[in-house]
Structure formats: structure tokens, C-alpha cells
Write a structure and sequence with these properties.
The complex is a heterodimer of chains A (110) and B (115). In chain A, strands 1, 3, 4, 8, 9 and 10 form a 6-stranded mixed sheet that branches. Chain A has a 4-stranded antiparallel sheet with strand order 2-7-6-5, with no helix packed on it. With 110 residues, chain A is mainly β. Helix content of chain A is 0%, strand content 51%. Chain B has 115 residues and is an all-beta fold. Chain B has no helices and 11 strands. In chain B, strands 2, 4, 5, 6, 9, 10 and 11 form a 7-stranded mixed sheet that branches. A 4-stranded antiparallel sheet of chain B has the order 1-3-8-7, with no helix packed on it. Chain B is globular. The interface between A and B is medium-sized, with 24 and 24 residues.
Amino acid sequence: GESVGLHLPTLSVQEGDNSIINCAYSNSASDYFIWYKQESGKGPQFIIDIRSNMDKRQGQRVTVLLNKTVKHLSLQIAATQPGDSAVYFCAETGSDKLIFGTGTRLQVFP
Amino acid sequence: GAVVSQHPSRVICKSGTSVKIECRSLDFQATTMFWYRQFPKQSLMLMATSNEGSKATYEQGVEKDKFLINHASLTLSTLTVTSAHPEDSSFYICSARAHRSYEQYFGPGTRLTVT
């Protein structure tokens, strides 16, 4: 189950499997959403974004799905690799500021 | 893509001293820069937003006299942690955004340890 504060939710997947990371966003007025990957000791790295007038967007090995009805965002990673191991954050914005979600740690095992 | 650098990458200072962290946009002009703080195993929390040539806008609960932000040029913003205490130890991350752009480009972060 999930917890906040000192414990990030963790998703463990086997190398080669697909990963799905979920995020519930808070503001129904948000119109732009981004997924970031953060490796230990580094800043966030942009993965993919989506605007509120879309419900799906695909990149290389990644797909973002947006469900505005239930304020839910997901990131799908195909054929997960060891290099995908990191913490993933969703972020939303409808203004100047980005609001980050709590994050999910993805662990890839051989 | 757009590159943002931070200096130093890590710093250790004694309690009561001040520390300055620099954030630079290397290949674009950043009209807006953001400063975040991240505690271990937690998310990024926005501290303040700074627009070039203007005073920074601080988020609720962030002491503006303790965290001094200067954005004097379109490529440089600085965060000074004044009279640092151990509870200020954290990972400080900046981001930069070009004019009329939604996208923020993040720096690599600065690990501050106050002893």
C-alpha cells in the first residue's frame, strides 16, 4: 500500500516487463502535466508531458494517459530496463507553478 | 536541450554561517527561475519564484529573510541561506523557464549539509 512522508511507494518490476506508475492530481484547473524521472542525488529529468486537451501521448518507450474525470495520470514504460530505476514524479500546473506529486520509486530487477 | 547548472553541487557549512547557491541557464534566457527544496524520500517543494529584475515571490511558510533570492540577470539566480541551521540541511534544486514557455528545466541540485 501507499504511505507518505518518509516512505515512497515502490514498484518492483522484472527487466523486460512493462511498468505502470500512477498519480492522482489535485487541481481540476490544471491544464498541463509532466512526468519527471529523478535519479539519486540528481535533479528531475523531463520524460514526457501532456496537455489537458489530450488523453494519451506516446514517446519512445513511454506513454502518458490522462483521465480528467477522476484526475488521474499514469506513466507506462515499455520493456523496462535497469536504467529506468529511479523515482518518478508527476507534476501539474495551470499557472506559473508546478505542483509535484509524492513520487514512486521504480526498482527493476533482473 | 536547455541546460541549467548549479554551483556548488554540494556544500558543508557550520551552523550560523551563510551559504550562496548559484543557478545558471547556459543556453537560453530564463525570465523566471524557481527554487525548490527536497528532503530525503520526499517530493520537491517550491520555495520561491523569481522573475528577472523583480523581487522573488515566496511560498507560504518560507522565510524571505532567511532564504534570500536574487535574479539579477536572465541567466543567473542565486539563493543565499542565511544563518544556516542543521534543519536547513536539504537538497536544493533550481529550475529555469524561458519567456512564454510552460516547460521548466531543472538544475542538478545542491546538497547542503549544516553541521
